[in-house]
Every structure is written in structure tokens, then in C-alpha cells.
Write a structure and sequence with these properties.
By secondary structure, the protein is of the alpha/beta class. Helices cover about 25% and strands about 20% of the residues. The protein contains five helices and 18 strands. A hairpin with a 4-residue loop joins strand 17 and strand 18. The chain is globular. The chain starts with a helix and ends in a 6-residue tail after the last helix.
Length: about 240
């Protein structure tokens, strides 16, 4: 008698499916480990559910447990210095309801639309967020825990809610210039003119949440942490 036949006798179908799903989730996840190489210093803190062929990760990225990237052929790009919180779901595609096709058979992916979700440098995606198809999250953004992102978010925005809306900027213009001078080469930095246009369009009258105050002890500790993993020092 085959194992499948024995299982059908011993376990009701719902229980069998539950056991199979748990087994699959456990063994398809990425073991908690600190990875070095190329890309450098990517921390994958499992369990994670994703297809590595559809996820493109730059250096210095941290993914927290229970991240799920649900994709047929869509792609997800995660740029350097970004951290994504536990329980976040990223879906770079959409279903199109089709006459004659029951939702149960949506796994055929008929009339699906695949997209690309890009998460910029130095973003913080809080725990339990949902990021939906075609969203672009700009450099330096903060997405508050539990938010649902349905559209593109400009650089250095702080967003929250369902759907996510801009509630603040991460830093002031002067702080962003200082921040980028420390993290990015000259060719990568946003210009003062670009930042002025950004603030005029999106952050007029809104507060910023960041600070540039840091004690000498913490400054030394930060520089030591950067040096240990090889984050370039530009200033």
C-alpha cells in the first residue's frame, strides 16, 4: 500500500491538507542565517516564503520572519540598506475576474497581470504591511506597521493606513542632505533642487520625524558597526 493511500485512511482530507501545507511551509523557508558574499550582508531571518528567482536583493538588506512574496511571474526589487518587518506580504500581480472561471481555479493564472514592485534604498517597512502590485516605494521611506500600500510613494515619505497615505517626512531637507552625504557616493545623492521640489509637492506643512542628534558614544558605536560589515564611509 502506498503512503498516499495510508494517509487517506488515517487522516481526513482537511487534516491531510493542513499537515501538507505546514510541512511545505517549513521546508521551503530560508533558514535563519547571516549571508555574506554577493549580495553582501543580507540577513534572511526565516521562516520566509518567496521564490528566489523573482526577488532581486541588493547589499545590506534585512528580511524579518514570515515575510511572504506571493507571485506567479511578477518581480520584487529590494534595494540596499532596507529592512522589511515581520509578517509583511508583497504581491506584485493582480487577478482579473474572468467569465466562466471560478475563483477556485484562479491558480491557472488566466488573465493575471504581473508587475514589478520596487522598494528603494534605506526603507523601513513595518511589521504586517501589505504591498500590492506596481507599487514603488521611494528611497528612505517609512511604512508604518499594518499599512496597505496600493500606489507609488515618494522618497523620504512616512506613510500609514489603509490605503497608506503620507503623514510626515522622515527628515527635513537639511537632514536628508547630511544623511545622503554619509550613506551614498556623490553620484547617487539627491540634489538640493530635487529635494526642494519633493518637499514643495508632498511635504508642505507636514512634520518630519527624524533627528540628527546623536551622542559621541552612540556615534562611535554606529561608525564601528558600519566598519565591521563594510558599509562605505563617504563623510
Amino acid at each position: 500500500m502506498k503512503a498516499r493511500d495510508i494517509a487517506s485512511i488515517l487522516f481526513p482530507i482537511r487534516l491531510r491538507n493542513f499537515i501538507y501545507n505546514q510541512f511545505t511551509v517549513y521546508f521551503r523557508t530560508t533558514t535563519p542565517k547571516h549571508y555574506e558574499g554577493c549580495p553582501k550582508h543580507v540577513e534572511l531571518n526565516g521562516p520566509l516564503i518567496l521564490d528566489p528567482e523573482k526577488v532581486f536583493i541588493e547589499d545590506y538588506v534585512r528580511l524579518q520572519p514570515d515575510l511572504r512574496i506571493i507571485s506567479q511571474n511578477g518581480k520584487v526589487i529590494i534595494k540596499k540598506y532596507t529592512a522589511i518587518g515581520a509578517g509583511t506580504v508583497i504581491i506584485p500581480g493582480t487577478h482579473t475576474p474572468t467569465v466562466g472561471m471560478p475563483q477556485y481555479l484562479s491558480t491557472t493564472h488566466i488573465n493575471d497581470q504581473d508587475g514589478t514592485i520596487s522598494i528603494g534604498e534605506d526603507c523601513w517597512i513595518g511589521a504586517g504591511c501589505i504591498i500590492l502590485s506596481h507599487a514603488t516605494i521611494g528611497r528612505g521611506c517609512v511604512v508604518a506597521a499594518g499599512s496597505i500600500v496600493t500606489k507609488s510613494i515618494p522618497p523620504y515619505a512616512v506613510v500609514a493606513g489603509s490605503p497608506a497615505k503620507i503623514i510626515a517626512s522622515r527628515f527635513s531637507k537639511a537632514q536628508i542632505l547630511n544623511h545622503e552625504a554619509q550613506l551614498y557616493s556623490a553620484g547617487e545623492r539627491m540634489s538640493e533642487a530635487e529635494l526642494s521640489a519633493l518637499f514643495t509637492e508632498f511635504y508642505e506643512g507636514k512634520r518630519s520625524i527624524g533627528t540628527d542628534e546623536i551622542s559621541p558614544e552612540d556615534k562611535e558605536r554606529l561608525e564601528k558597526a558600519k566598519a565591521e560589515i563594510g558599509i562605505p564611509a563617504f563623510q
